[in-house]
Amino acid sequence: MSSRSAVVFPKDLRMLKILGENISLAMKRRKITQTRLSERTGLSMPTLRNITRGEPSVSIGHYLVVLSVLGLAEDLGKVALDDEFGRRLQDIELLTSKHKKKPTSQSS
């Protein structure tokens, strides 16, 4: 059985790398070693190394477990919270639908 892996574009790989670096910095600030984090999360050392590298092959659930132990799980809830592009699309639709309304006929 072969495992499927997501196709991740270079721009998105950079974002994962930044996430991994941020997790690594959070560990250092808290003076939590990978060994200690492994004990607290139940994740293997190779998985933790992959997380700190921002590897796309690691499940988001594993990233969440690590963030939770670091006290940063709430940060994941902020992802896509401020959907500026979605609001612009919605505003365009609202503005164009206003112009498409059929005029009401008034009969006397």
UniProtKB/TrEMBL annotation:
<dbReference type="InterPro" id="IPR001387">
    <property type="entry name" value="Cro/C1-type_HTH"/>
</dbReference>
<dbReference type="InterPro" id="IPR010982">
    <property type="entry name" value="Lambda_DNA-bd_dom_sf"/>
</dbReference>
<dbReference type="Pfam" id="PF13443">
    <property type="entry name" value="HTH_26"/>
</dbReference>
<protein>
    <submittedName>
        <fullName>XRE family transcriptional regulator</fullName>
    </submittedName>
</protein>
<dbReference type="GO" id="GO:0003677">
    <property type="term" value="F:DNA binding"/>
</dbReference>
<feature type="domain" description="HTH cro/C1-type">
    <location>
        <begin position="23"/>
        <end position="76"/>
    </location>
</feature>
